[in-house]
């Protein structure tokens, strides 16, 4: 699968995405998802536009963005791997994989980008009989072992490097 | 004749290469000049056999698995398309022990049909429930649900019929039906399998619910960690709308029912129903104090029926066959069937639908075949991250809401996670606190602050510091969290923690005395 392509922040485009959804009941999450899909993150400059269009305070918009793990506030500097570290994957060795990645590749999980890859913790991907699991770019990778995770890591790093 | 080949596109199957198997089969058939039709299905739930490939011959499906793309040439050489013999051939799917031992009411079509084919759906009893419902008065529909004994499958086990009746009785010009598809519990995936494998069943269940309670708008709140379910669900809603069984005139006489999919944003707490409502309204997912009940004042302050995916998915059967037919299954006050999700360190993991009352041992040993590692089973967590850790000695407990509650455990959403004897239960207790802190909505102190303290304190116990005093402190913290939390996130975190301490005390002893295998 190809990597999601993001465009650079553009207030006109953002405004259009926001206005298109403004009529929805509870439009906030659909708007934030649309912005993140387009730009790869939710730019701080979007806050004022959303507040104005939805007729709510900026503090409320900002509070919502910051509440949810999914919404990023900085442009992505590469690809993301979400590694499941919930109980069922732990029972299948997920913590050993996480340690291996940190030790061998100097990766810091939940510690930002390195080599164009950010590895983040996620709790359950709904594939608990086939763990350990990771999610990258809309695809789930199951039955991961150390080699499988390394391969995934390398392929994401390569894609970003291109 | 064109041979029909069935390959799942369920996320579990995709995660282990189902797409590359489908491509390899298509390529190989082409090269050999064989005419085939590949049907992409949901999963049968035999997840250890994924990717599972089925061939239809003389009206039966023959299963092969787990198939890798590299197996495909040898499968064709063994006359796969005629059900030929091969090391991966498992036999007729319906005759496999795993399938035969189940009572599939909700999962009867999953893995069998093309999830997005309305024809397939209707050919296998789809829409029967909604059609029946529309011949009844809304009150009679609620009666059927009451009679079925159906209880909420999201975790709390509240009787569905009573909730439906409350919403039905509420006076308002606008009401909502909300499907809780946040499925955040580790060890659970049945909601996902329904949405990917039989999305029309969920839509039908929601339409019946909307008709019964008088709602004109429905939302499915789906977690963002399920990208495949989102795609299938979105398409299914579109198709159902085009076919006219939801939309402006869903229930005749100009009565509308509109349905919309909404995606969450990575917050476990948004599975809690009032937090979910705040999130749907576009706010931070903060838990609300009850009362008011969402049934009376829910989404945007309107009467709102909130049910889990599995609760709503059970409804078409109940209407089609009658509430009593559903209530015929089960034990005690747990009526009907339970989709059980077996995961973790298990040899044969997957989805098992059985009447309530089946024992953990039958699930873990007979279905599951013991651990994947081959080591002894040591601990089993039932009911998600807020559920208790049980020991091997307790496997004869039947799965039933009341029995588990009487044993200081809970059934939750029906997830069972197995650990072998290398599991360190002190670490699992620490993780329970860690998870609680990481996913707390932050509204109340016992949960927000208590969980952080709990994590630190268990850390000290693991390091062997002041074990007695720190264990006492953990127990105190647990008491405060149980009594002082607004919702079950903080209120039930003590369940995994205390169950680990009480059932596996050796893991909390001084390091020299610990017995867990390394
Ligand atoms: C912390 C927490 C998380 C929850 N997560 C879910 C969930 O992911 N899915 C769900 O259906 N119910 C979840 N629930 C239960 C809901 O609050 C609610 O009971 C349920 O949606 C009601 O539907 P039901 O009666 O059909 O089970 C959760 C509850 C708590 C306290
Ligand atoms: S117990 Fe925790 S999650 Fe629940 S309301 Fe309180 S702070 Fe929020
Ligand atoms: S616990 Fe990792 S996928 Fe469920």
Question: What would CATH call the class of the largest domain in chain A?
Answer: Alpha Beta
Query: What is the β-strand count of chain A?
Result: 5
List segments of chain A where confidence is low: pLDDT < 50 over at least 5 consecutive residues: none
How many domains, in number, for the residues of chain B? 4
Determine the CATH topology of the largest domain in chain A. Glutaredoxin
Work out the oligomeric state of the chains in this entry.
heterodimer
Unreliable spans of chain B are: none
The portion of residues assigned to helices of chain B is: 40-55%
Major sheet description of chain A: 5 strands, mixed
Indicate the overall shape of chain A.
Answer: elongated
Per DSSP E runs of 2 or more residues, the count of β-strands of chain B stands at 16
Strand content of chain B: 15-25%
Note the total helix count of chain B.
21
Q: Looking across the biggest beta sheet of chain B, what order are the strands in?
A: 2-1-3-4-5
Q: Mind telling me the CATH class of the largest domain in chain B? A: Alpha Beta
Bound molecules: flavin mononucleotide, iron/sulfur cluster, FE2/S2 (inorganic) cluster
Mean pLDDT of chain B: 97
Q: What is the CA-atom radius of gyration of chain A, in angstroms?
A: 18 Å
Any guess at the CATH architecture of the largest domain in chain B? 3-Layer(aba) Sandwich
Mean pLDDT across every amino acid position of chain A? 95
What is the CATH superfamily label of the largest domain in chain B?
A: NADH-ubiquinone oxidoreductase 51kDa subunit
Description:
Chain A folds into two domains: 11-67, no CATH class; 79-161, Glutaredoxin (3-Layer(aba) Sandwich), CATH 3.40.30. In chain A, 47% of the residues lie in helices and 12% in strands. Chain A has seven helices and five strands, in the order ααααβααββββα. Chain A has a five-stranded mixed beta sheet with strand order 2-3-1-4-5. In chain A, a hairpin with a 2-residue loop joins β2 (113-114) and β3. The longest helix of chain A has 16 residues, at 146-161. The radius of gyration of chain A is 18 Å and the shape is elongated. Chain B has 518 residues and is of the alpha/beta class. Chain B contains 21 helices and 16 strands. In chain B, the strands form four sheets. In chain B, strands 2-1-3-4-5 form a five-stranded mixed beta sheet, with helices on one face. A five-stranded mixed beta sheet of chain B has the order 13-12-16-14-15. The structure holds flavin mononucleotide, iron/sulfur cluster and FE2/S2 (inorganic) cluster. The site of FE2/S2 (inorganic) cluster (FES) has 11 residues of chain A, from α5.
